[in-house]
Amino acid sequence: MRLLLPRSVLARAPVLVLALHGEQEFELLKPIFVGDVLTWTCRIADIYEKEGGRGGKMKFAVVESHYINQRGQNVAIARNVMIEFPSRPQVA
Question: Which runs of consecutive H residues, i.e. helices, occur in the chain?
């Protein structure tokens, strides 16, 4: 979606933030069986920035989830990368 705004409005407009799901991976450590009860904890494993191709800095957050079964065994790790990048409305 593109917003077309006059320059007078654009000059006062805050930066809009857009985010998307960039990547996801799963590391299976042990078999997970039907009937298993899983609990998990999440943590932010990393945050970093890169210069975007259209200008502006993109921010990346790697969220890591550790899954444990009812026997206390680590059974899986999931890693998600979320990407946030700034965008400005287009000038009319």
Answer: 7-12
- Condensed to tens digits (0 to 9), the pLDDT of residues 16-60 reads 557 788 899 999 999 999 999 999 999 999 999 988 777 678 889
22-32 per-position pLDDT tens digit = 899 999 999 99
Check: CB of residue 21 under 8 Å from CB of residue 80: yes
Domains held by the chain: number: 1
CATH code, 55: 3.10.129.10
Q: Domain of 20?
A: 4-91
